[in-house]
Design goal:
The structure holds 2 protein chains of 2 kinds. Chain A is built from 12 helices and 10 strands. Chain A is an alpha+beta fold. Chain A has a 4-stranded mixed β-sheet with strand order 1-4-5-8, covered by helices on one side. In chain A, strands 2-3-7-6 form a 4-stranded antiparallel β-sheet, with no helix packed on it. The longest helix of chain B has 29 residues. The relative contact order of chain B is 0.10. Classes of the chains: A alpha+beta, B alpha+beta. The interface between A and B is large, with 52 and 53 residues.
Chain lengths: ~400, ~400
């Protein structure tokens, strides 16, 4: 048993680490989020040059054929730099859907363009009433000759303002909360019938509300089978959930290490505040939370993700447990930084904000605790005294 | 044991409730409501107009002040009722810097000229005060402050930097702790309490942006600021005594029970409108149980506050137990802001009202709820961090 990276993985980690260190230092990152666009297209080109945009795609499509561990490596380092370019939404989630469901033609025409950085897809799934249920869809697509006409509203679509294309989940059949009858459509973001309302998020990323009015999409631009996309959506969201858990673990490391340093250097009443046992114990608990978060992430990426039940359990276990760590480590990082923790100027609050928003993305602690419970606790057998179990 | 209000108290409660409903301006409610929805900051008028109305009504702007200085001189129970009713009606709260902080210091330790000059403006709400205590490097260890005041003829010359000066951007006056004797044996012994006109040359106020993007606090710089000696409160080098007195006053109402109750009510409304698993969120067992938990914490705290109040009414004065009110009060405020953020799911993300966006998206009630969760991390840090409050209880209450 070992948890070591392969030689290729170590090279990948070194590459992303040096990108964050050399091209994405704190001041650079702060200047990027203040621009109107909220990202830097040049960085996307750099990702393409470095081969990062191809990490999860198959080698016969020009990708690196990377697995969960490779994605974790990229996301963890991006977390440490709070990289705002839409890597997860575009490459992991939307890219994953296209890889999984695309026809040979669709894959051959789209994936090389994604890997080269010329196209960016993002997936518009959430709706105001859906909360975290991916199947709760009001957005409708009705057949009209060889086309579908789509009408609906998608909420908080991350990275839409930076995208060239959208994947839209719409209902071609079934009730609002039915898992069947969900169809995915590939559309150019500039199509008539799509209006974006772009805005910054509290953690300085960008998202959009997407208003879809009489959008005409030809049948050829259906991704996957008509009315049968829910399983694939759930799978790709699970894999993306594990990806953002990796980002969170990178962020937690920064929160924990920076707080440690701060407490050693900050003097009050004539000594470092870390000389107080109350503070020491808090720092220790933060470290324990971080290690537990990292461990559950390793559990998730080494699980059999091709088995859908294992994958569901792994994603929810990681997201629920890491969500708890985010709250504990994040809130205590701010508390121990005192006044320096609550200001915008100092970097720690930005890491806390991003981690907190990751806590909500694809479902918060309650959502994933419930999902994990439903998946794991339904077949508990009652105690048979003959088994010799003695709890007294 | 009897927790019912007396018939006089109930009469008073009705009087306050009626006064608020007849006098709280609709325009103010609308103005604050609109700004809340669009993520904009409140103006000086928004902050002060209710104060000004109360100032014209039997000194209600200063519930705890003695009548001789124009205050309402409410009993502790009346103060409690008054605060509850204001929170219930969601009135803009009264800025504490004048009424609760410097006012009592001036009428307790100031001379007649100082009382005549400053108390009326505090009472009426025409003069906006801010607090110059904290400095970079001296947060919870307040006595380590370095801003110096050197006496030259009939002036002090003040040099140094204050930080976390809340709403200094609106302030007309600042009350400051300054070091007048750098050679004192103990750091507490060389500190004086000065009142400084914010228009005096040499004062610069620079905004500090908090993590939610709001501008509530500032850095305030003093560069050879000449302050007339008549602005010294009490005796030179005795400022620490006045500061401690002030801190005891700052504690009253710090639990914020009534406000948190109101916020919980609001969360229940939000959770009735938000959907989860196809049902209103308020029916989600996990969420419901968190609301119930917050209510239990709040109920306990309310009775802890009432017990403190009863002791206070019996003339025993609030003791270091008030640290308990600060710890639990801020704990609950943070719990409540987190629940509100959680209630709106993905709509915790949009950051509205910034220069980067003119869009107003999502339900009105969701605007800035994550901002408020992030903003309220300050509550367990300011006014003596909750770690310091625990030290106080350990030492003063438990005798450890």
């Amino acid at each position: 048993m070992n948890f070591d990276y392969t030689e290729e993985q170590t090279l990948l980690e070194n590459m992303v680490t040096s990108f964050v260190r050399d091209d994405y230092d704190w001041d650079t990152r702060c200047s990027i989020v203040k621009t109107e666009e909220g990202w830097k297209e040049e960085n996307w080109k750099k990702f393409a040059e470095l081969g990062l945009l191809g990490v999860p795609f198959d080698e016969d499509q020009g990708g690196l054929g990377g697995e969960a561990t490779d994605i974790m490596i990229v996301m963890e380092q991006f977390g440490k730099g709070l990289v705002v370019e839409p890597y997860m939404p575009s490459i992991i989630l939307a890219g994953g859907l296209i890889s999984k469901l695309g026809s040979a033609d669709q894959k051959n025409s789209i994936i090389p363009e994604i890997i080269s950085g010329d196209r960016r897809y993002v997936f518009a799934y959430a709706e105001p009433q859906s909360r975290f249920d991916l199947f709760d869809i009001k957005c409708s697509a009705t057949l009209d000759g060889d086309n579908y006409i789509i009408n609906g509203f998608k909420s908080v679509v991350f990275g839409a303002g930076m995208a060239t294309h959208l994947i839209i989940s719409a209902r071609t059949d079934g009730d609002q909360r039915s898992k069947s009858g969900i169809t995915l459509f590939l559309v150019d973001i500039k199509s008539d019938g799509i209006t974006l309302q772009n805005y910054p998020t509290i953690d300085e990323y960008r998202a959009s509300e997407v208003v879809i009015e009489n959008l005409t999409v030809s049948k050829e631009n259906i991704l996957g089978e008509l009315g049968n996309s829910y399983e694939a959506i759930e799978e790709q969201v699970d894999l993306s959930t594990i990806a953002i858990c990796s980002e969170a673990v990178g962020i937690l490391q920064v929160l924990k290490d920076s707080t440690n340093d701060y407490c050693k250097n900050r003097k009050q009443f004539g000594q470092s505040i870390s000389a107080n046992q109350a503070i020491q114990h808090r720092l220790v608990d933060m470290m324990i939370e971080y290690e537990q978060a990292k461990s559950i992430l390793y559990m998730a990426i080494t699980a059999d993700l091709s088995n859908s039940d294992e994958r569901r359990k792994a994603a929810s276990a990681a997201k629920a447990r890491i969500g708890k760590a985010i709250k504990f480590v994040g809130e205590n990082a701010i508390q121990l930084h005192g006044g320096m923790g609550v200001v915008d100027e100092y970097m720690i609050s930005h890491f806390f904000k991003r981690a907190t928003m990751i806590g909500i993305l694809f479902g918060n602690v309650d959502f994933h605790m419930k999902r994990y419970t439903d998946l794991t606790q339904s077949n508990i057998q009652s105690i048979n005294e003959d088994d010799g179990i003695n709890l007294s | 044991m009897d927790t019912a209000f007396s018939s006089e108290d109930l009469k008073f409660q009705l009087e306050v409730r009626e006064f608020i409903s007849n006098n709280y301006p609709k325009e103010l409610k609308d103005s604050i409501g609109t700004k809340r929805k669009t993520g904009k900051e409140l103006s000086r008028d928004d902050l002060m107009s209710w104060h000004k109305i109360l100032g014209k009504h039997n000194g209600w702007s200063a519930p705890g002040w003695p009548k001789q200085y124009g205050g309402a001189e409410f009993s502790p129970t009346q103060k409690y009722i008054f605060e509850q009713e204001c929170a219930r009606a969601e009135c803009q709260y009264i800025m504490p810097f004048g009424v609760n902080m410097v006012g009592p210091v001036i009428y307790t330790f100031g001379n007649d000229e100082q009382k005549a000059k400053h108390l009326p403006g505090i009472l009426s709400g025409d003069v906006f005060w801010c607090q110059g205590y904290s400095e970079p490097g001296s947060g919870s260890d307040l006595a380590s402050l370095k801003t110096s005041a050197v006496k030259e003829g009939d002036h002090y010359v003040v040099n140094g930097q204050k930080t976390w000066t809340t709403l200094a951007q609106h302030a007309d006056w600042i009350f400051c702790l300054v070091r007048t004797n750098p050679d004192a044996e103990k750091p507490q012994q060389g500190i004086s309490f000065l009142l400084i006109d914010m228009k005096t040359p040499g004062i610069t106020v620079r905004p500090i942006k908090l993590m939610d993007g709001s501008h509530e606090v500032n850095e305030t710089w003093f560069d050879n600021v000449k302050v007339p000696v008549e602005n010294l409160i009490g005796q030179e080098n005795m400022g620490w005594t006045y500061a401690k007195f002030l801190l005891a006053h700052e504690r009253s109402g710090i639990a914020g029970v009534a406000r948190s109750k109101k916020a919980l009510e609001r969360i229940k409304q939000i959770a009735s409108a938000e959907m989860s698993y196809g049902e209103p969120l308020i029916q989600d067992p996990a969420f419901k149980s968190k609301i119930a938990n917050a209510e239990l914490e709040l109920s306990s705290l309310e009775y802890t506050e009432l017990r403190t109040l009863a002791k206070d009414s019996a003339g025993k004065g609030p003791g270091p137990e008030s640290s308990l009110l600060k710890i639990k009060g801020t704990d609950i405020q943070q719990m409540v802001t987190e629940l509100a953020m959680e209630a709106v799911g993905y709509y915790a993300n949009p950051h509205l009202g910034t220069t980067l966006s003119n869009e107003y998206v999502g339900p009105d009630y969701a605007t800035n709820l994550s901002g408020s969760y992030f903003n309220f991390r300050k509550a367990s840090i300011y006014g003596g961090s909750n770690e310091i409050q625990r030290n106080i209880i350990a030492k003063m209450v438990l005798g450890l």
